[in-house]
Amino acid sequence: MAEAVVELERLRRTFPSPEGEVVALVGLDLRVERGEMMAIMGPSGSGKSSLLNLLGCLDRPTAGHYRLDGLAVETLDDDALADVRNHRLGFVFQGFNLLPRTSALENVMLPMLYDRRHRFADPEARARAALERVGLGSRLHHAPNALSGGQQQRVAVARALVTEPALVLADEPTGNLDSRSTADVMSLFQELNDQGVTLLIVTHEDEVAGYCRRAITLRDGALVRDVAKTQRRAADDLARLDAAHHA
Amino acid sequence: MTLRRLISVALGSIRRNAARSLLTMLGVVIGVASVVVMVAIGKGAEAEIGARIANLGTNLVIVTPGSQSKTGVSGGANSMDSLTLEDVDKLTRESLEAEKVSPVIQTYGMVVAGNNNWRTQVYGVDLSYFDIRRWTIASGRGLDDNDVRGHRKVAVIGKTNVDMLFGEEDPIGKTIRVRNIPIEVVGILQSKGPTPDGADQDDVMLLPYTTVHARFAGRSFIAQILLSARSEAGVPEALKEVRAILRESHGIQGKMEEDFTLRDQSALAATAKGTTEVMTTLLLVVASVSLVVGGIGIMNIMLVSVTERTREIGIRRALGARRRDVLMQFLVEAIVLSSLGGLIGAGLGMAVTALVGSLTGWATVVTAQSVLLALSFAVGVGVFFGWYPARRAAALDPIEALRFQ
Asked: Cα separation of A117 and A108, whole Å?
């Protein structure tokens, strides 16, 4: 059996409210193995965001267990969770979430500045390499507002990858992108996944889910569907879009 | 993050928001500059008044005839001529604490030079008087041994006398008449200006005491015996010793009333020094208020900045920043801002001080102490007023912060 990156066991998250307890996740069991590329789908209010926050160690479960890359994280305190995010996780957001007026290079170096273990001797060289890996070697010193949406998301991907995390979490990564940029970013994700990066992508677009190897669907805080699928290759779509554009 | 990193992050953030950062610093700049300027002006005034008091002689001991407690009563033990030249001799010989001793024999009278006349203080003094009262000669010569021994009719006169008796003329070598006795002017005293309490120190005419004693006998008396203690600190000892010597020579024992009075300048010096110190403190307090106001400005802008950068805080937290990292980031930013403001303010303060000094002619003293004080105060302001916004930033929930639009 392959190694598990994410193991959720009866993971439950509730929020107190004046009308009583609101249940966001009813008690989820989930296992994600290394090298998977999985979409998390579901309508709004289905518990997607709550799950993402828990998976991203930004939040703690009300009950249940979460092992990330073998580490039980549900018992960790605030500082330890920050370190887990730094060492084991990479984030890609819908709104890119790059620091404004800060060069691509500095943005990608950012997570390494918070690395208390100082795993990387030369953060700048690593950041440079990460940007080259996502095809932005010539845009190192551009600020986000000088880059296109697709390029900004590539910077964000480079930032998520630079610390070699066990898991990359993407929250609607193509929500702000046109179809060409969507195909572009998704082909980058597929490329990285082919190289062994484990990816979880929260999305409500079937198109995006189509690029993944597996898709789960949440409804009312419970897992209602879990299917494996044949991956559409985003690179093919990209080539077709470009051809149509030039025709 | 290391402190160096934190500072470079802070500098980066300040550079990216250059205009806002400058406006934020402005309060501290003005605060520090005003502290530096105010202290410079205060210290300048202090130094100038100190110099004037030193001019009077801070180690001065003055013996005057008559008892302090009995006023208006003349004759007997308290008469105005209770001091004698024998007292002066005895003090010169016996006092160990007094470095120099001079009698001051006073006479009054109209002084005439050509068509001008002027009523002034005519003092018969010994050579040591010039040292004790710190008189220097502006032109001509001072009195010398021969003048004193030979009872010569020569005088050194103050600037006021020059103006009143001679106007534009050069008085050296001219003859003046004091109570009809012709006296040659041999020198002019360097002007001292008024005393701190406004008396004209330059309205004075100095003759050898032997001359005054011989020529104005019966119309003169020993108004003072002046002594200089070895140092300002030695004044109390000198007072004690002089009192003992005079009591002995005047045959005063036990509780008998003394027929002389001892004074020194310490009370005057202390009063003047106290006044200027109060003034400096007052100026400093006023200037400090503006520094505090500057700090509140920093706090305001930092609070706005924390709100504006909520998303940035969320990003940093998501990427692995601990609460403490965020706290330190904003705190260091506030401190760097206020320190930069402090440095600029110190420079501005020194420039303004120089300008004020050259425009008004006031004495100003920029001390390293006041600059360092203002700078450390500025840093303190940064810490104090940066703390609250930094705490707010650190307390933000990363999920909320990331969702913030």
From this structure: 18
Domain limits, chain A: 4-246
Interface check for A56 against chain B (CB to CB < 8 A): the answer is yes
Q: Which CATH number fits domain A4-246: 3.90.79.10, 3.40.50.300, 3.40.50.150, 2.40.10.270?
A: 3.40.50.300
Alpha carbons B284 and B374: distance in angstroms, whole number: 10
3-state secondary structure chain B: CCHHHHHHHHHHHHHHCHHHHHHHHHHHHHHHHHHHHHHHHHHHHHHHHHHHHHHHCCCEEEEEECCCCCCCCCCHHHCCCCCCHHHHHHHHHHCCCEEEEEEEEEECCEEEECCEEEECEEEEECCHHHHHCCCCEEEECCCCHHHHHCCCCEEEECHHHHHHHHCCCCCCCCEEEECCEEEEEEEEECCCCECCCCCECCCEEEEEHHHHHHHCCCCEEEEEEEEEECCCCCHHHHHHHHHHHHHHHCCCCCCCCCCEEEEECHHHHHHHHHHHHHHHHHHHHHHHHHHHHHHHHHHHHHHHHHHHCHHHHHHHHHCCCCHHHHHHHHHHHHHHHHHHHHHHHHHHHHHHHHHHHHHHCCCCCCCHHHHHHHHHHHHHHHHHHHHHHHHHHHHCCHHHHHHCC
Question: Is residue B196 very low, low, confident or very high in pLDDT (cuts 50, 70, 90)?
Answer: low
Q: What is the pLDDT of residues B140-159, one digit of tens each?
A: 999 999 999 999 999 999 99
Tokens of A63: 């009950």
CB pairs under 8 A between A and B: 62
Identify the residue among A85, A115, A202 best suited for mutation to test binding to B, counting B beta carbons within 10 A and taking the highest. Answer: A85
Mean pLDDT, chain B, as a whole number? 87
Q: Does B19 touch chain A (CB under 8 A)?
A: no
Interface residue B315 vs chain A (CB under 8 A): yes
Nearest by CB to A97, from B9, B311, B320: name it.
B311
| Dist. CA A214–CA A38, nearest whole Å | 5
For residues B290 and B397, membership in a common domain is answered with yes
pLDDT of residue B73: 47
- pLDDT digits 0-9 by tens, B257-302: 888 888 888 777 777 778 888 888 888 888 888 888 888 888 888 8
Same domain, B214 and B180: yes
Nearest CB partner across the interface for A113, out of B5, B314, B324: B5
pLDDT of residue B66: 81
Inter-chain contact A114–B314, Cβ cutoff 8 Å?
no
ipTM of the complex: 0.94
Name A75's Cβ contacts closer than 8 Å, sequence gap at least 6: none
Rounded to an integer, the average pLDDT of A79-97 is 94
What is the tens place of the pLDDT at every residue in B327-343? 999 999 999 999 999 99
Q: By the CB < 8 Å criterion, does A115 face chain B?
A: yes
pLDDT at A1: 54
Is B75's Cβ below 8 Å from some Cβ in A?
A: no
- Say yes or no: B193 and B292 in one domain: no
Percentage of chain B with pLDDT > 90?
36
Name the pTM for this structure: 0.72
**Are A213 and A2 in contact, with CB atoms under 8 Å apart?**
no
